[in-house]
Amino acid sequence: MKLSIVIPSYCAEKYLRSCLESVDQQSDTETEVIIVDCSPNNNVADICADFSFVKFIKESQRFNPGEGRNIGAKASSGEYLIFIDADVVLEENALNNIRKHAETGYKIFGAALELNTTSNDDFAAHVEHYYFNHESQSSRQITKRRNLSSAFMIVEKELFLKFNGFSDIPRMQDTELTERIGDSGIDIYFMPDVIGFQIQDSRLGKVLKKISITGNNIFFICYSHRRTMLSRFILCLLLPLMTLAKITRINIRNLRYSFSLKMLFIYTPYMYVCGIYWMLGFYRGVIKNDGVASGR
To answer: What are phi and psi of 117, to 5 degrees?
Structure first.
Protein backbone atom coordinates (compact mmCIF):
# COMPACT_ATOMS: atom_id res chain seq x y z
CA MET A 1 0.00 0.00 0.00
CA LYS A 2 1.46 3.33 -1.07
CA LEU A 3 1.38 6.26 1.34
CA SER A 4 1.62 9.92 0.34
CA ILE A 5 2.87 12.37 2.96
CA VAL A 6 1.74 15.91 2.19
CA ILE A 7 3.35 18.91 3.92
CA PRO A 8 2.28 22.51 3.19
CA SER A 9 5.03 25.06 3.74
CA TYR A 10 5.46 28.77 4.18
CA CYS A 11 8.93 29.71 5.47
CA ALA A 12 9.11 26.33 7.23
CA GLU A 13 12.88 25.98 6.94
CA LYS A 14 13.38 26.22 10.71
CA TYR A 15 11.70 22.85 11.32
CA LEU A 16 11.43 21.03 8.00
CA ARG A 17 14.79 19.22 7.99
CA SER A 18 14.06 17.43 11.28
CA CYS A 19 10.63 16.45 9.96
CA LEU A 20 12.06 14.99 6.75
CA GLU A 21 14.85 13.20 8.58
CA SER A 22 12.27 11.43 10.75
CA VAL A 23 10.46 10.33 7.58
CA ASP A 24 13.71 9.23 5.91
CA GLN A 25 14.52 6.89 8.80
CA GLN A 26 11.40 4.79 8.16
CA SER A 27 10.28 5.45 4.59
CA ASP A 28 10.46 2.93 1.74
CA THR A 29 9.65 2.76 -1.96
CA GLU A 30 5.95 2.68 -1.06
CA THR A 31 6.12 6.09 0.63
CA GLU A 32 6.31 9.45 -1.13
CA VAL A 33 6.65 12.94 0.33
CA ILE A 34 5.14 15.99 -1.35
CA ILE A 35 6.13 19.46 -0.16
CA VAL A 36 3.92 22.30 -1.38
CA ASP A 37 5.71 25.58 -0.71
CA CYS A 38 4.72 29.22 -1.13
CA SER A 39 7.72 30.85 0.59
CA PRO A 40 9.10 34.07 -0.91
CA ASN A 41 12.61 32.55 -0.93
CA ASN A 42 14.34 29.27 -1.85
CA ASN A 43 15.25 28.10 1.66
CA VAL A 44 12.66 25.31 1.73
CA ALA A 45 13.59 24.23 -1.81
CA ASP A 46 17.25 23.95 -0.79
CA ILE A 47 16.36 21.66 2.11
CA CYS A 48 14.12 19.49 -0.06
CA ALA A 49 16.95 19.06 -2.57
CA ASP A 50 18.86 17.07 0.07
CA PHE A 51 16.14 14.39 0.18
CA SER A 52 15.74 12.38 -3.00
CA PHE A 53 12.32 11.02 -2.02
CA VAL A 54 10.73 14.51 -1.84
CA LYS A 55 8.54 15.84 -4.63
CA PHE A 56 8.74 19.63 -4.38
CA ILE A 57 5.95 21.87 -5.69
CA LYS A 58 6.46 25.64 -5.73
CA GLU A 59 3.47 27.97 -5.75
CA SER A 60 3.98 31.65 -6.53
CA GLN A 61 1.00 32.87 -4.51
CA ARG A 62 0.69 32.38 -0.77
CA PHE A 63 -2.09 29.91 0.01
CA ASN A 64 -4.13 28.93 3.03
CA PRO A 65 -2.72 25.71 4.53
CA GLY A 66 -5.75 23.72 3.43
CA GLU A 67 -5.28 24.75 -0.20
CA GLY A 68 -1.62 23.70 -0.02
CA ARG A 69 -2.74 20.29 1.22
CA ASN A 70 -5.28 20.05 -1.60
CA ILE A 71 -2.56 20.77 -4.17
CA GLY A 72 -0.35 18.07 -2.67
CA ALA A 73 -3.20 15.57 -2.56
CA LYS A 74 -3.95 16.08 -6.26
CA ALA A 75 -0.28 15.50 -7.11
CA SER A 76 -0.05 12.36 -4.98
CA SER A 77 -0.10 8.75 -6.16
CA GLY A 78 -0.72 6.98 -2.84
CA GLU A 79 -3.84 5.21 -1.68
CA TYR A 80 -3.71 7.03 1.66
CA LEU A 81 -2.80 10.64 2.38
CA ILE A 82 -0.82 11.56 5.47
CA PHE A 83 -1.09 15.25 6.29
CA ILE A 84 1.55 16.54 8.68
CA ASP A 85 2.90 19.96 9.56
CA ALA A 86 6.53 20.83 8.99
CA ASP A 87 7.15 21.14 12.74
CA VAL A 88 6.16 17.51 13.46
CA VAL A 89 8.75 14.76 13.91
CA LEU A 90 7.47 11.23 13.40
CA GLU A 91 8.00 8.55 16.03
CA GLU A 92 10.08 5.69 14.62
CA ASN A 93 7.16 3.27 14.11
CA ALA A 94 4.62 5.83 12.89
CA LEU A 95 4.50 4.83 9.21
CA ASN A 96 4.34 1.10 9.96
CA ASN A 97 1.44 1.68 12.34
CA ILE A 98 -0.34 3.92 9.81
CA ARG A 99 -0.04 1.21 7.16
CA LYS A 100 -1.33 -1.40 9.61
CA HIS A 101 -4.47 0.62 10.41
CA ALA A 102 -5.07 1.48 6.74
CA GLU A 103 -4.83 -2.18 5.74
CA THR A 104 -7.27 -3.05 8.53
CA GLY A 105 -9.82 -0.79 6.83
CA TYR A 106 -9.87 2.47 8.78
CA LYS A 107 -10.71 5.25 6.30
CA ILE A 108 -9.80 8.33 8.32
CA PHE A 109 -7.94 8.63 11.58
CA GLY A 110 -5.81 11.00 13.57
CA ALA A 111 -2.45 10.51 15.22
CA ALA A 112 -1.31 11.48 18.69
CA LEU A 113 0.63 14.72 18.89
CA GLU A 114 3.08 14.83 21.77
CA LEU A 115 5.11 17.84 22.84
CA ASN A 116 8.65 17.94 21.43
CA THR A 117 10.32 18.79 24.73
CA THR A 118 13.81 18.64 23.22
CA SER A 119 13.01 21.85 21.35
CA ASN A 120 10.91 23.69 23.92
CA ASP A 121 9.83 22.74 27.41
CA ASP A 122 8.57 26.02 28.90
CA PHE A 123 5.21 26.91 30.47
CA ALA A 124 3.65 28.30 27.27
CA ALA A 125 4.64 25.18 25.30
CA HIS A 126 2.92 22.91 27.81
CA VAL A 127 -0.18 25.13 27.97
CA GLU A 128 -0.54 25.04 24.19
CA HIS A 129 0.07 21.30 24.05
CA TYR A 130 -2.27 20.37 26.89
CA TYR A 131 -5.03 22.65 25.60
CA PHE A 132 -4.94 21.62 21.93
CA ASN A 133 -3.63 18.04 22.02
CA HIS A 134 -3.71 16.26 25.41
CA GLU A 135 -2.91 12.96 23.69
CA SER A 136 -0.49 11.15 26.02
CA GLN A 137 -0.23 7.48 25.26
CA SER A 138 -0.21 5.61 28.54
CA SER A 139 -3.11 3.10 28.55
CA ARG A 140 -5.04 4.91 25.80
CA GLN A 141 -7.23 2.98 23.39
CA ILE A 142 -8.47 3.49 19.84
CA THR A 143 -11.42 5.86 20.15
CA LYS A 144 -13.89 7.62 17.88
CA ARG A 145 -13.47 11.34 17.35
CA ARG A 146 -15.64 14.19 16.15
CA ASN A 147 -12.81 16.03 14.43
CA LEU A 148 -9.07 15.78 13.81
CA SER A 149 -6.02 18.01 13.50
CA SER A 150 -4.36 18.24 10.08
CA ALA A 151 -1.03 18.62 11.90
CA PHE A 152 -1.06 14.80 11.70
CA MET A 153 -4.08 13.28 9.99
CA ILE A 154 -4.48 10.21 7.77
CA VAL A 155 -7.28 9.75 5.26
CA GLU A 156 -7.98 7.45 2.33
CA LYS A 157 -7.38 9.47 -0.82
CA GLU A 158 -10.62 8.33 -2.46
CA LEU A 159 -12.59 9.52 0.58
CA PHE A 160 -10.71 12.82 0.70
CA LEU A 161 -11.47 13.56 -2.95
CA LYS A 162 -15.10 12.49 -2.53
CA PHE A 163 -15.52 15.31 0.00
CA ASN A 164 -13.59 17.79 -2.19
CA GLY A 165 -10.74 18.14 0.28
CA PHE A 166 -10.23 21.11 2.56
CA SER A 167 -12.41 24.18 2.21
CA ASP A 168 -10.63 27.39 1.29
CA ILE A 169 -11.06 29.13 4.63
CA PRO A 170 -8.23 30.87 6.52
CA ARG A 171 -8.05 28.56 9.53
CA MET A 172 -9.42 25.33 11.01
CA GLN A 173 -9.92 23.69 7.64
CA ASP A 174 -9.30 20.35 9.39
CA THR A 175 -12.19 20.83 11.81
CA GLU A 176 -14.52 21.87 9.00
CA LEU A 177 -13.56 18.88 6.81
CA THR A 178 -13.79 16.25 9.51
CA GLU A 179 -17.09 17.69 10.74
CA ARG A 180 -18.44 17.27 7.19
CA ILE A 181 -17.15 13.72 6.95
CA GLY A 182 -18.50 12.81 10.38
CA ASP A 183 -21.89 14.30 9.60
CA SER A 184 -22.13 11.93 6.62
CA GLY A 185 -22.03 8.94 8.96
CA ILE A 186 -18.40 7.93 8.44
CA ASP A 187 -16.57 7.05 11.64
CA ILE A 188 -13.43 9.02 12.52
CA TYR A 189 -10.84 7.54 14.85
CA PHE A 190 -7.90 8.44 17.06
CA MET A 191 -4.96 6.01 16.93
CA PRO A 192 -2.73 6.30 20.01
CA ASP A 193 0.09 4.21 18.53
CA VAL A 194 0.66 6.66 15.65
CA ILE A 195 2.77 9.34 17.29
CA GLY A 196 4.29 12.64 16.22
CA PHE A 197 6.27 15.12 18.31
CA GLN A 198 5.31 18.72 17.66
CA ILE A 199 7.26 21.88 18.45
CA GLN A 200 5.34 24.51 20.38
CA ASP A 201 7.43 27.69 20.56
CA SER A 202 4.87 30.49 20.84
CA ARG A 203 4.92 32.98 23.68
CA LEU A 204 2.08 32.71 26.17
CA GLY A 205 0.29 35.79 24.83
CA LYS A 206 0.23 34.29 21.35
CA VAL A 207 -1.02 30.96 22.71
CA LEU A 208 -3.95 32.71 24.39
CA LYS A 209 -4.65 34.63 21.18
CA LYS A 210 -4.75 31.33 19.25
CA ILE A 211 -7.23 29.95 21.75
CA SER A 212 -9.43 33.04 21.42
CA ILE A 213 -9.34 32.82 17.62
CA THR A 214 -10.27 29.14 17.88
CA GLY A 215 -13.38 30.10 19.85
CA ASN A 216 -14.31 32.65 17.20
CA ASN A 217 -13.81 30.14 14.39
CA ILE A 218 -15.68 27.31 16.11
CA PHE A 219 -18.76 29.53 16.18
CA PHE A 220 -18.70 30.00 12.41
CA ILE A 221 -17.83 26.39 11.57
CA CYS A 222 -20.24 24.67 13.93
CA TYR A 223 -22.92 27.13 15.09
CA SER A 224 -23.38 30.04 12.69
CA HIS A 225 -26.25 28.22 10.95
CA ARG A 226 -28.35 29.25 13.94
CA ARG A 227 -29.61 32.41 12.31
CA THR A 228 -32.41 33.53 14.61
CA MET A 229 -31.73 35.99 17.40
CA LEU A 230 -33.44 33.69 19.90
CA SER A 231 -31.26 30.68 19.09
CA ARG A 232 -28.09 32.77 19.32
CA PHE A 233 -29.26 34.29 22.59
CA ILE A 234 -29.83 30.84 24.07
CA LEU A 235 -26.42 29.74 22.79
CA CYS A 236 -24.77 32.70 24.51
CA LEU A 237 -26.55 31.90 27.77
CA LEU A 238 -25.38 28.29 27.62
CA LEU A 239 -21.83 29.10 26.55
CA PRO A 240 -20.31 29.34 30.07
CA LEU A 241 -21.61 25.84 30.81
CA MET A 242 -20.33 24.59 27.44
CA THR A 243 -16.92 26.10 28.20
CA LEU A 244 -16.84 24.58 31.68
CA ALA A 245 -17.67 21.16 30.24
CA LYS A 246 -15.07 21.54 27.48
CA ILE A 247 -12.22 22.47 29.84
CA THR A 248 -13.21 19.90 32.45
CA ARG A 249 -13.11 17.21 29.76
CA ILE A 250 -9.62 18.38 28.74
CA ASN A 251 -8.47 18.35 32.36
CA ILE A 252 -9.86 14.87 33.01
CA ARG A 253 -7.93 13.54 30.01
CA ASN A 254 -4.75 15.30 31.07
CA LEU A 255 -4.98 14.09 34.65
CA ARG A 256 -5.74 10.57 33.53
CA TYR A 257 -2.96 10.24 30.97
CA SER A 258 -0.35 12.80 32.06
CA PHE A 259 -0.72 13.02 35.82
CA SER A 260 1.88 14.96 37.76
CA LEU A 261 1.86 17.49 40.58
CA LYS A 262 2.51 20.25 38.04
CA MET A 263 -0.45 19.03 36.02
CA LEU A 264 -2.69 18.97 39.09
CA PHE A 265 -1.73 22.29 40.67
CA ILE A 266 -0.54 24.43 37.74
CA TYR A 267 -1.76 23.32 34.31
CA THR A 268 -5.21 22.09 35.35
CA PRO A 269 -6.24 25.44 36.91
CA TYR A 270 -4.70 27.36 34.02
CA MET A 271 -6.80 25.44 31.51
CA TYR A 272 -9.81 27.34 32.91
CA VAL A 273 -8.02 30.61 32.11
CA CYS A 274 -7.64 29.26 28.56
CA GLY A 275 -11.34 28.46 28.60
CA ILE A 276 -12.17 32.08 29.35
CA TYR A 277 -10.18 33.19 26.30
CA TRP A 278 -11.96 30.56 24.17
CA MET A 279 -15.36 31.74 25.42
CA LEU A 280 -14.54 35.41 24.77
CA GLY A 281 -13.46 34.50 21.24
CA PHE A 282 -16.74 32.66 20.73
CA TYR A 283 -18.71 35.67 21.97
CA ARG A 284 -16.72 37.85 19.59
CA GLY A 285 -17.83 35.62 16.72
CA VAL A 286 -21.47 35.96 17.73
CA ILE A 287 -21.28 39.74 18.11
CA LYS A 288 -18.96 40.68 15.23
CA ASN A 289 -20.29 38.01 12.84
CA ASP A 290 -17.40 38.64 10.42
CA GLY A 291 -16.43 35.07 9.55
CA VAL A 292 -13.51 32.74 10.17
CA ALA A 293 -10.47 34.69 11.39
CA SER A 294 -7.23 34.34 9.43
CA GLY A 295 -4.85 35.07 12.32
CA ARG A 296 -3.06 32.70 14.64
So the answer is: -75, -15
Give the pairing type, strands 108-115 and 189-198.
parallel
Q: Parse the chain into domains and list their residue ranges.
A: 3-198, 204-288
Give pTM, 2 decimals.
Answer: 0.91
| CB-count exposure of residue 164 (10 Å: 0-12, 13-18, 19+) | exposed
User: What CATH number was assigned to the domain covering residues 3-198?
Assistant: 3.90.550.10
**What's 77's DSSP letter?**
-
DSSP 8-state assignment for residue 142 = -
DSSP H helices, the chain, are 13-24, 43-48, 65-74, 94-104, 123-132, 157-162, 173-183, 204-218, 229-257, 261-262, 268-288
| 194-239: pLDDT as tens digits | 999 999 999 999 999 999 999 999 998 888 776 688 888 899 999 9
Following DSSP, what letter does each residue of 149-212 receive, concatenated?
A: -TTEEEEEHHHHHHTTSS-S-SS-HHHHHHHHHHHTT---EEEEEEEEEE-----HHHHHHHHH
Q: Which of 13, 22, 175 has its CA nearest to residue 35?
A: 13
